[in-house]
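Onboarding guide, step 5: your first structure request.
Type a short instruction followed by the sequence, for example:

Predict the 3D structure of this protein.
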Amino acid sequence: MKRGTAKTLDMTSGALMGKIVAFSLPLAFSGILQLLFNAADLAVIGQFSSTSSQSLAAVSSNNALINLIVNVSIGLSVGANVVMAHAIGAKDAQRASHTLHTSMLLSLVCGIIVGIIGVSCGRYFLIWMKTDPVVLDKATDYLTIYFIGAPANIIYNFGSAILRARRGRSSILRSRAF
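The system replies with structure tokens like these:
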């Protein structure tokens, strides 16, 4: 068994279909994990809540908004992935470093903005989505907790996008400290 060897994915030559599938599988997998996370929330609430029907309705009423935030975050991070992959392919360490730092700063700023807007306006979002008034308080509490964690979620999505770009031929970045 060889140590120190890593499988690389060269997206610049050869047939593209297999490479596109290999690139998109992690994105699809993260969407599946988000659905499983929502299902786990519902299962735990249904099992342990004293008012399970109201709690289930409160969590379910947030799914569309949470999925919107997660998918927009993943979509923006794919843009960072493309820019980083282009810099790596061009063997431009300075642009790759600039892309990394800009992407992470952007994710931090966007995460904080989304968190602040979500915590302060979450109840209004739910009202605009016509959430049942019976579950509005519980739905607002759940959404507030989610928005408090939104900065970490957005930073994670951008960081994983940058790491996916490094998966290919990225020896140029191995010499730089991150």
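Each response can be followed by summary notes, for example: The two ends are 29 Å apart (CA to CA).
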